[in-house]
């Protein structure tokens, strides 16, 4: 076809480009198609897990004793290393004994005097009794001898009580460990004057076993009781601890106490578990995460946590099907398991979920999927 002007007039400028295109016989060049975006996928796997309940707990020593002075005096010795383990009955502090030993000696001397007085009173009583029997003694003298004999016995008993009290005070100058455990910092140095009003000299806390207390809501208690009453109920709940660094404490515990009152402020009940503590890892007052595991395992689907996405509707994952197309799967979360996430619904075992390259894809797009092993 030949291009000419219409009626001797040239085409308008806006038609020139189209005319030139019509006159040319070359084909327009097309850009090459972009390759499918590359993504990394991981297959959803199946695992046997036990239902878990997580709480925040605090470590509590079974026994915690403040050592106090029961008599006044100057500290003479401190016989322990701060922070060390001590045995029950071990000598820890000594208070000066001089005045208390003197009191014991004085009481012993008083007993000797009282015994001598009682012996003399017994002799006089016997003498006056014989005279009265022979009708040569006055009854009044016998009555007087009887009274003196009773008075001497009372004095002897009083001196014996004084000796016991003096010996008890003397024993209080040796302060021993009432329990086995770890002793803390000494609050008084040797040479200080201490007494009953001085406060705690040091504190001993028991170490092994040890308690962990944690609050549980009424709803969780009711759910657990319903689970226990159902057919095929799981075995006894096992309690684990998660430490501050994220590691699991290697000894399992057992629940041994459920409080009889409910906190009105939080509507929770205090639950207590007992744990072995041979390595002294748990310390009184320490904050830990408490994990309760049911004895009955469940089979669940697990995916990497990085594959999860959230929007206003809820949680979802992007799945690559057999045609390498991206699809959206709405899922119901069941809780974390390490770096993975347990899914209750929405995904089947073996489906490939996208873990890397999520920002470059959209549903329906064909992708170049590279499979990685779970946990890689």
Description of the molecule:
With 376 residues, the protein is an alpha+beta fold. Among the domains are: 39-49 and 298-372, conserved putative lor/sdh protein from methanococcus maripaludis s2 fold, CATH 2.40.420; 52-62 and 209-293, Beta Barrel (Elongation Factor Tu (Ef-tu), domain 3), CATH 2.40.30; 97-172, Helix Hairpins (Orthogonal Bundle), CATH 1.10.287. It is 24% helix and 33% strand. It has helices at 13-23, 98-133, 139-171, 218-229; strands at 38-43, 45-49, 52-60, 64-67, 73-78, 85-86, 91-95, 174-176, 181-183, 193-194, 202-205, 210-217, 238-242, 254-258, 268-275, 287-293, 298-304, 309-310, 315-320, 326-330, 332-337, 340-345, 352-356, 368-372. The strands form five sheets. Strands 1, 18, 19, 20, 23 and 24 form a six-stranded mixed β-sheet that branches. A hairpin with a 2-residue loop joins strand 21 and strand 22. Helix 2 (98-133) packs antiparallel against helix 3 (139-171). The longest helix is centred in the first third of the chain and has 36 residues, at 98-133. The chain is rod-shaped.
Q: pLDDT under 50 segments (min length 5)?
A: 1-26
Q: Report how far apart the termini are.
A: 66 Å
Global mean pLDDT: 81
Category from helices, strands and their pairing: alpha+beta
User: Rg from C-alpha positions?
Assistant: 45 Å
Under CATH at level 1, the class of the domain at 52-62 and 209-293 stands as Mainly Beta
Tell me the number of helical segments per DSSP (H or I, 4 or more residues long): 4
Helix content: 10-25%
Number of strands: 24
CATH architecture of the domain at 52-62 and 209-293: Beta Barrel
Strand percentage lies at 25-35%
For CATH, the homologous superfamily of the domain at 52-62 and 209-293 is named as Efflux pump adaptor protein, beta barrel domain
The description of the largest β-sheet is: 6 strands, mixed
Tell me the series of helices and strands, N- to C-terminal. HEEEEEEEHHEEEEEHEEEEEEEEEEEE
Q: What is the global morphology?
A: rod-shaped
Q: What fold name stands as the CATH topology of the domain at 52-62 and 209-293?
A: Elongation Factor Tu (Ef-tu), domain 3
């Amino acid at each position: 076809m030949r291009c000419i002007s219409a009626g001797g007039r040239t085409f308008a400028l806006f038609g020139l480009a189209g005319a030139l295109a019509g006159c040319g016989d070359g084909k327009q060049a097309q850009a090459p198609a972009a390759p499918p975006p590359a993504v990394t996928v991981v297959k959803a796997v199946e695992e046997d897990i036990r239902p878990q309940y997580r709480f925040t707990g605090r470590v509590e020593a079974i026994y915690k004793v403040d050592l106090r002075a029961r008599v006044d005096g100057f500290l003479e010795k401190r016989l322990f290393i701060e922070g060390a383990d001590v045995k029950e009955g071990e000598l820890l502090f000594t208070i000066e004994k001089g005045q208390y030993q003197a009191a014991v000696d004085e009481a012993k001397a008083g007993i000797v005097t009282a015994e001598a007085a009682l012996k003399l009173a017994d002799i006089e009583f016997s003498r006056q009794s014989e005279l009265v029997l022979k009708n040569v003694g006055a009854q009044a003298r016998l009555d007087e001898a009887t009274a003196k004999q009773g008075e001497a016995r009372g004095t002897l008993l009083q001196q014996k009580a004084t000796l016991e009290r003096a010996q008890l005070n003397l024993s209080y100058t040796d302060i021993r460990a009432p329990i086995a455990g770890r002793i803390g910092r000494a609050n008084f140095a040797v040479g200080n004057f201490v007494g009953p009003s001085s406060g705690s000299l040091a504190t001993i806390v028991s170490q092994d076993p040890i308690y962990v207390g944690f609050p549980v809501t009424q709803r969780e208690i009711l759910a657990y009781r319903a689970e226990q009453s159902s057919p095929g109920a799981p075995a006894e709940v096992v309690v684990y601890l998660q430490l501050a660094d994220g590691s699991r404490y290697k000894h399992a515990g057992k629940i041994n106490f459920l409080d009889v009152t409910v906190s009105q402020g939080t509507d929770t009940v205090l639950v207590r578990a007992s744990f072995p503590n041979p390595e002294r890892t748990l310390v009184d007052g320490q904050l830990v995460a408490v994990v309760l595991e049911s004895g009955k395992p469940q089979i669940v689907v697990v995916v990497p946590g990085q594959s999860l996405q959230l929007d206003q509707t809820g949680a979802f994952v992007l799945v690559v099907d057999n045609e390498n197309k991206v699809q959206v799967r709405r899922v119901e979360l069941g809780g974390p398991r390490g770096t993975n996430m347990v899914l209750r619904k929405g995904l089947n075992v073996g489906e490939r979920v996208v873990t890397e390259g999520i920002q470059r894809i959209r549903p329906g797009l064909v992708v170049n999927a590279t499979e990685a092993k779970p946990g890689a």
